[in-house]
Amino acid sequence: MTPVADEIRIDVPVSGAPGRGVLTRLGSKLGNGFVQLLLTLIALFWLVPVFGLLVASLRDESANTGSGWWTVFTKPAELTLSNYAELVANKAVWQSFLNTFYIAVPATVLVVVMASLASYALAWIEFPGRETLTVVVVGLLVMPIQVALIPVAKLFGALGLFGTITGVVLFHVAFGLPFAIFLLRNFFTGIPRDLIEAARMDGATEWVIFKRVVLPVAKPAIASLTIFQFLWVWNDMLVALVFADQDSAPITVALRAQLRQFGTNIDLLATGAFLSMVVPLGVFLLFQKYFVQGVLAGSTK
Amino acid sequence: MRLRVNVDAAPGRSPRQAIPFLLPALVVLAALVLYPLVFSLVRSFFDASGDEFVGLRNYVDTFTDPRTLTAFRNNVLWVVVAPAAVTGIGLVLAVLTERIRWATAFRLVLFMPMAISLFASGIIFRLVYEEAPNQGVVNAVLVGVHDVFSPASRYPGARPRVGYAATEAGFTAVRPSKAGDTVSLPLIGFSPQDVPPQAVPASQPTAGAGELRGVVWLDVSVGGNAGKVDPVERGLPGIAVEAVRDGQVVARTTTGDDGRFTFPDPGSADVTVRLPPENFALPFRGLTWLGPSFITPVIISSWIWIMTGFAITFIAAGLSAIPRDALEAARVDGATEWQVFRRVTVPLLSPVLLVVFVTLVINVLKIFELVFVIAPGSVQSEANVLALQMWQVSFGTGGDQGAGSALAVVLLLLVAPAVLFNIRRFRRERS
Asked: Per the database record, which ranges form the ABC transmembrane type-1 domain (chain A) (predicted)?
């Protein structure tokens, strides 16, 4: 779309004088070449740190302490999967990797289900206080989780949920809900009124309208929310740092003990960090359209 | 699902039916967000144990505690520098990507850091800025560039055994020499393994008429005589030697493979032999990025890496909504690209830029993981920010939940303007 518009601009002489047209065209060509080069360099610049981590994760401890990852270009034979084999064989780390799933999947499902239900009510059922409730949800969007850490830790302690996966999941659900409701409510209100009214005229209950009319139409929004929420929880560290114990810790928390001796633990940390990145990167590349939409919609979070 | 005809409820006017839809979310929000919010407010007025009401003391302590004040200062630095930088970079790059065909791919690459955890990004940048130039790529590049302009010395740390005074100009002989003399320069403080391979055993030069001769060798053989050339001791090739008279260098030469050097014509008056410092300079090892002086800028740079893609994508979405005609009209009127950018694009985009900026400010105020991961334990107090301090005070080393609650409330107050901004924006969009 945009490149076409640019070309049209270039081919149409800006003013009447033909000499200026040629110069403008030349200048524009040179300028575009420069922009291409600049943006290529910036893109590479953005990729280098990740590439460095990937290479470091594929070199063993002695290689990493002895020389930088960039020496791989002269010594590609140093590459090995042994770090990954070791990490996967390490029960605690592997358990933490699984824990990350056990936390992220239910936290995502619960948020999507609860938010869809609540959003339907906020969008299509009239009840007293609906306006206020919506504004409260918007107000909660940027609530720092720090405000809840201490009280919820106490509450979970009393309920026996402290240090459990359930506790971590519940906290994520609570702080995922405002954004989820905000996003879905906005989408649901955009559904044509006729669609809902027609179903009501046919005598459908609210539950049926929600299930048969709203949910099918809202699939893209729900997809965005699912991916956004999953990555949000998957990538968390602070919540788990407070509420998880050693057995329920996700990978981010499990690896933090290795940070003390960074220089000699690069092999382990790089491998662990990359393992933790594989899932989000896969999700991102497969569903990038939905993820980007989710992030843009959730810009306030 | 059984269809039930609902005769008594007019369409859309059935308040009671909202309850089952709202209940699950409301229960969770009330129990885990709203109740804690109130609890934290109250808790912040009690002491560490939670038994004694202390009024505003936690807040007074918060604003007088040096660690919290450092955290405040860093948060201010973050808020002033980081969101503006990312918005600016994002704006420029979003406009530039409009001119390339692979804009989508470019935005994808820059957006990618948003998908991974701040923990992983922290590890990535800890590695990037690692101090050892054989591990951290930034220092590796710095050392590489530095060594091109001032090559690394061959004999770092070596020094003469006796008879030379260390000065800024190098090692200077204590006693002057003149033509016909021979000079001995036994060096120590350097490993025999690091002597260049072309070095051959040294020998004491014989005096030559009108010439000043000498030898520089590594005087560190086992059982050898200190200050004397022993048979196994090798000369040190490539060392610069200067002859100095009245503070002026009158001659300059370099030692051969046997460590010998000769000034063919030092003149009749006395000269002083000097070994300039470039022979022995310790290698440049880059900068201590993760030390106290650079740590916050370093963490900010990693945050810029993470958030720029977000800014570009958001601003690009805003750009595509700008009417093309407005830009074309300005161009037809003869405006330069810069003028179009300044006078048309930026003003039309300003609402979008404001939203991006506010979003980034909120994000910055909550910054935690990056500091936690990138700053080594010893400099974490230098890099401290409020969210990290809150965690430290409440759950880390502090264990004072009264002070922690006060910090949480302070954070809440800091994002409060953003809450109002969001509500107003929401209300405006509705109407």
From this structure: 97-287
